[in-house]
Amino acid sequence: MAAPKRARTIKLMTVDDHPLLRDGLAALIQPQPDIELVAEASNGVEAVEFFRRFRPDVTLMDLQMPLMGGIETIAAIRAEFAAARIIVLTTYADENKAVRALKAGAVGYLLKNAVRRELLDTIRAVHAGQRRVPPDIACEIAAHLGDEELSDREISVLQLAAGGNANKQIAWQLSISEDTVKAHMKSIFAKLDASDRAHAVAIAARRGFIEI
Description:
Helices cover 52% and strands 13% of the residues. It contains 10 helices and 5 strands; from the N terminus they run βαβαβαβαβαααααα. By secondary structure, it is α/β, with parallel strands linked by helices. The protein has a 5-stranded parallel beta sheet, with helices on both faces. The longest helix has 15 residues, at 178-192. The protein has 2 domains: 10-143, Response regulator (Rossmann fold); 152-207, Winged helix-like DNA-binding domain superfamily/Winged helix DNA-binding domain (Arc Repressor Mutant, subunit A, Orthogonal Bundle), CATH 1.10.10. It has helices at residues 19-29, 44-54, 70-80, 95-104, 115-127, 135-143, 152-162, 167-174, 178-192, 197-207; strands at residues 10-15, 35-41, 58-61, 85-90, 108-111. Helix 2 (44-54) packs parallel to helix 3 and helix 9 packs across helix 10 (197-207). The termini are far apart.
């Protein structure tokens, strides 16, 4: 009787600019007989180069990194390797960053505070062809699925407004007219269903459009 076939090892790459986090991930992975850590990148540029060299089955990707951010790196890898399976591993629990990462080509989204509980299952599930997004983030995405997105200009206006700038100051900093700023603010209120500027800033920060 033939011996049962041994499952193929999952080749894993980690991408994060913090050495301590990479070391922690390596320590979690090392005892697993079915997962092999084949590469560790410290930024997005390195990640693209290492992906070409090592062709990992699954990649863990941070979002905030020097040289090239996680979302740009995901898009760059997926442009070359359409079948790449990338899991975002981040501290950002907001819906906007998750949506941007998924649109760029990520198939999983995992918060760093859930690593010990969920990392290994998520790696295996994604390798098996599943998608994984935390339930609360998935609910937030679903709740705003039909909403019109803020434009890049609207996000810039709102980020400056969050910094306490009046319309006149925002207009000067963005080299646009004050009337244009007012039009952008009106559009922002409508898209976010906000009653005033402070409300719009609070909603946009919670959903990850801006940082305060």
